[in-house]
Amino acid sequence: MDTVTLAVPILFAVGVGAGIVATLVMDLVMARLPEGTTPMYIAAGVLTDRPPGEAPGRLAAVVHYVAGLLTGPLFVWLLLASDGLLGRSVVSTLAATGVLLVLMIGFFAIIVLPRSRVDDRRLGAIRRDWSLSAAAYLVVLVPLVAVAFRLV
Question: I need a labelling partner for 144 at 20 to 30 A (CA). Which of 68, 78, 100, 112 fits?
Answer without folding.
Answer: 112
